[in-house]
Amino acid sequence: MKAVELENVVKRFGNIVALRGITLTVEEGESIALLGPNGAGKTTVVKLIAGLLKPSRGTVRVFGEVPWKNYGVRKRIGVVSHNTFLYEDLTAYENLLFYCRLYDAEEGRIDELLEFFGLKGRKHDLVRGFSRGMKQRLSIARALLHDPPLLILDEPTTGLDIEGRRELLELLTEVGEEKTVIFTTHDVREVEGICGRVAIIKDGRVVYCGVVEEDLEELYMRAIYEGA
Ligand code: ATP
């Protein structure tokens, strides 16, 4: 089954055309990276998939449903963005408990996820005192509480140092073994080892989509500057 299908999707914001006819399919269980420079349209694509935006034209389907119309399918998606959606004045545990109740998820998942993301020892500490990397790991734990089959990660490593990035990418590789993952970044080096396929977006269009069998950095530069 297809996890995600976008067909000829156009998205306008007033006079700005963010997406100019995007067609993209993601198979269930697949991990795909959306690459592209600033302003290419990556976040707009993930917001459409998450049901946070409605397309101006074309169709978006997630597990066969239209996400902006269907709340049920949105429960099958976990989203991580630049905004961690964490409450600084709550502890790590309290944050996850809050979201657990909101999503109607199993409270037993909290300890499991805190352990997986290396935060068990900080369970009862306020998020206010967490480093950027710890907040980002907790934010991913939050997105996984309801065990969604589709995980969307919109530039999850923004603001992390090299070590924080490496740790997070290792954890995400493990998470990706069991889920469909859509990962956006403008750093091509992050994709290796995580995503089997890449879609390169430029000016609201997919300029390359496929498995990478050559040097990704070269392919990316060619796609962005020469259009193929
Ligand atoms: P970045 O890597 O910088 O996050 P991106 O590839 O995610 O960029 P988008 O955020 O999807 O790009 O933006 C694509 C285009 O759509 C940009 O020109 C942006 O200014 C425009 N855009 C996105 N959201 C809105 C909005 N709510 N209102 C107006 N324009 C918007």
Fold and architecture overview:
The protein is of the alpha/beta class. The protein has a domain of 121 residues: P-loop containing nucleotide triphosphate hydrolases (Rossmann fold). 31% of the residues lie in helices and 28% in strands. The chain has seven helices and nine strands, in the order βββαβαβαααβαβββα. The strands form two sheets. A six-stranded mixed β-sheet has the order 5-6-7-3-8-9, sandwiched between helices. α6 links the parallel β6 and β7. The protein is globular and about 50 Å long. 37% of the residues are buried. Bound molecules: adenosine-5'-triphosphate (ATP). The site of adenosine-5'-triphosphate has 12 residues, from β2 and α1.
Structure keywords:
single chain, 228 residues, alpha/beta, Rossmann fold, three-stranded antiparallel beta sheet, 7 helices, 31% helix, 28% strand, binds adenosine-5'-triphosphate
The percent of residues in helical segments reads 25-40%
- For the record, the CATH architecture of the domain at 1-76 and 184-228 stands as 3-Layer(aba) Sandwich
Output the helix-strand order. Answer: EEEHEHEHHHEHEEEH
What's the CATH topology label of the domain at 1-76 and 184-228? Rossmann fold
Q: List the strand order in the largest sheet.
A: 5-6-7-3-8-9
- According to CATH, the homologous superfamily of the domain at 1-76 and 184-228 is P-loop containing nucleotide triphosphate hydrolases
Oligomer: single chain
End-to-end separation: 29 Å
Which blocks of ≥5 consecutive residues have pLDDT under 50? none
Number of helices: 7
Number of separate strands: 9
